[in-house]
Amino acid sequence: MLESTFELAIPKPITDERTKYNYCVAHLSPDAAMAVRDVILSPGSTNPYSKLKEEVIARCGESKSQEIRRLLAGEQLGDRKPSELFCVKQRRSESHNVADSLLLELFLQQLPPNVQSILASIQPLTAQKASEVADRILEVTPAQLSAVSKYSSANSDNCSESARPYGAVVSVTTHST
Questions:
Q1: Which of 67, 126, 129, 152 lies at a C-alpha separation of 20 to 30 Å from 47?
Q2: Nearest to residue 21, comparing CAs of 1, 48, 56, 59?
Q3: Distance between CA 70 and CA 65 in Å, rounded?
Q4: Which residues form the DUF7041 domain (predicted)?
Q5: What are the backbone angles phi and psi of residue 66, rounded to the nearest 5°?
Q6: What pLDDT sits at residue 47?
Q7: Long-range CB contacts (< 8 A, 24+ apart) of 120-126?
Q8: Hey, is 87 helix, strand or coil?
Q9: Proportion of the chain above pLDDT 90, given as a percent
């Protein structure tokens, strides 16, 4: 992300290693700064930004095995759109040469069962197409679910109201005997 900031700088791109280094140090999170404290205190005279960048990635980034574990373990969809979850999985899989078919399976496992059922009927199905269709399915599904839950809660209110007279009759019957 910093690389694009340097490229888009106005009036001209930032290319000086020392300037990049200073900008990066000023914008490091406290945790990252502590992790690379030794590099910050003695950056060296040649390529300080490149050295800092390498060390931040090495010390603060996930190892390859951690990335693979996270990719295989899966994540919850939560409030995200399926296409957002797919982008996360795709980004994690890029550096590991994961086959598209495996990426698709890993993605499908994280979707609700009703969405999986619908997607199973689409042939041929690519991961990209699956994420787009899943987005559309879930745009419609929550409205249907909330309508059903409103209907069922209205029915339960009616049931509890109709049960009140019965409860009153039972109460009167037990108190009068």
A1: 67
A2: 48
A3: 9
A4: 1-72
A5: -65, -40
A6: 92
A7: 126/100
A8: helix
A9: 29
CA angle (139, 108, 76) in 5-degree steps: 70
Average pLDDT over residues 78-95: 86
8 A C-beta contact, residue 32 and residue 58:
no
- For 47, other C-beta atoms within 10 Å of its C-beta total 15
Structure tokens at 61: 């980034």
For the chain, first and last CA: distance in Å? 81
Alpha carbon distances (Å) from 27 to 20, 30, 41, 128, 170: 11, 9, 16, 35, 72
- Alpha-carbon gap, residue 36 to 59, rounded angstroms: 8
Token match 């199905």: residue?
A: 125
Q: Is the pTM of this model over 0.85?
A: no
Rounded-to-integer distance, Cα 82 and Cα 137, Å: 10
What DSSP character marks residue 123?
S
130-168 as b/e: b if 16+ CB within 10 A: bbebbeebbeeeeeeeeeeeeeeeeeeeeeeeeeeeeee
pLDDT, tens digit, 9 for 90 and up, residues 36-75: 999 999 988 889 999 999 899 888 877 777 777 877 777 7
